[in-house]
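Table S2 (continued). Query chain:
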Amino acid sequence: MSDFDLVIAGTVVLPSMIIEGGYVAVRDGKVVHVGEGAAPHAHERHDFGNALILPGAIDAQTHSLSQKNQEDFIWSTRSAAAGGVTTIVDMPYDEGNLVCSAEAVRIKVEHASPQARVDFALYGTIDPTEGASRIAEQAAAGVAAFKFSTFGTDPVRFPRISPPLLQETFIEVAKTGLTGGVHNEDDESVRAAMAKVKASGITDWRAHGLSRPPLTELLATLQIYETGAQTGADAHVVHCSLSRGYDIAADYRARGFHASIECCIHYLTLDEENDVRRLGGKAKINPPIRPRAEVEKLWKQVAAGNVTLVSTDHVSWSEDRKTNPDMLANASGVPGLEAMVPLFVKGALERGVSLTWAAKLMAANPARHFRLGQKGALEAGKDADITVLVNRPQVYDAARSGHNVVGWSPYNGIELPWTVAGTWLRGKQVFDGTVVVEPGLGRWVRP
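Corresponding output:
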């Protein structure tokens, strides 16, 4: 009788090295051993040749419930499994249930659990009318981090947190030992820029970038990190589209402050002058997609080690909310769960960036960031969350794949040289390259 339940052989990608001719051995849902050479026998054995074997990705930023009766966990976790993502961290801005109390956390966990095909963790937030009074109870209830915004998208569902309230909130977050993540756009500056754009009469694809120039993002970034420095809180910028933002974060870290920073896959893939121009509302994201020169600067920040996490900021708006010819009238955000890992691998290989960064930025670092100690690594004792990519080029098409609630994607038409051929969650296969596991296997994970 074999000593292992599962062995997967191929090119093993770790944060510190790449093992060609390697393997991962699994027993009872946990990684037991990572080795090189002839793979041992197992009850279930897969030899993928030169395929890439990565730790299952942890997507640090998803919005499964932003639009009622639209995506939900039944679809977001399906897209995740098909994309090699084994844990999603869902944002608290749900339509009809702002996750700002222990009771709201309980409601969301009970709602999501029967639907989940992969594991999930949760962000919490605050209702500005209540102040920071419910931070501690949410931490006790099991949230993995907190999310706030310096810009008010909606006064109820996605409210602005003023500078004094952010300071108060960070003081309470620091007591929990968790991280305070913040949407980084200065409210007053954005509103002034938006008014200027509207007065100019510009409504096409150019309008969004003009309404959120770089300084609007950088001012908020400075506010977030300085608030963290003054309160002792772990401060996190949840998405940064500008190379300068990563320099700012690195400066704070060099001075001993906890200043982490996240890059979404769309900022590493899409550009303003080609993709936003072509896609219009389907490429409207906050902060906005920047010019191609900025995209290349971000890849240099990845290679320099100045990026903490890579995520999607995934949200699957129905198509009618992304196709208004008035650019600013469209909802902000795009789906990306199925495409993130292949897109990062493609971008890294094209630029000579080591694939070890894929294991760091989409697995090891997110696990550390959210205090999910059992996740994020192909190491003995960790959950056997594994993603396999094969060198089989395909042109991405969200509708054709069948794993997305919407048939549109800003990544449609991009050729991906490496394709997800299998995803394992705690040693159980949740995607075989074609079929995704039925709902219910995924679990809620907490720090």
